[in-house]
Design a protein that fits this description.
Layout (H helix, E strand, L loop, with lengths): L4 E2 L6 E2 L5 H6 L20 H8 L6 H9 L12 E5 L14 E5 H8 L4 H10 L1
Antiparallel strand pairs: 1-2, 3-4
Length: 127
């Protein structure tokens, strides 16, 4: 009997190495920091892994916040930080630095209320 596990690319339950949809679409697992293709068992490419070995063990979210700058892009606060996706995950966005901006909780709410659209467009045009 085959063992059921999660696909390492999309997270769907499967008995295969990767799910049928990912295999048919030719999807590859990518480094969550730089986007390079990595092995199915890895979260980071060799280059990013080497950089992170010297740092304390942080979650992927904390590593990305630290890499982006560690403060709110809009107001400069350093506490209560969240990641905002330029292209939402639900619309095909990815967890890559090129699609993320670090903001505090207060500014994140304002972004989703539409108060900071120009500031964010400017941010993603610069990077």
């Amino acid at each position: 009997m085959s063992r059921i596990k999660n696909c390492p690319i999309c997270g769907l339950r499967t008995t295969r190495r990767i799910c049928y949809e990912c295999e048919m679409a030719g999807r590859k697992k990518e480094c969550y920091i730089c986007g390079q293709v990595v092995s199915l068992r890895s979260e980071l490419c060799a280059q990013c892994r080497q950089k992170k070995i010297s740092e304390c063990r942080l979650s992927p979210r904390e590593l990305i916040i630290q890499h982006i700058g560690g403060k709110c892009f809009i107001c400069g606060h350093k506490k209560g930080l969240e990641l905002h996706h330029e292209i939402p995950i639900s619309q095909g966005g990815v967890d890559r630095i090129s699609n993320l901006v670090c903001v505090c909780g207060s500014c994140h709410k304002k972004i989703h209320n539409g108060e900071f659209k120009r500031a964010l467009k400017k941010m993603f045009e610069i990077s």
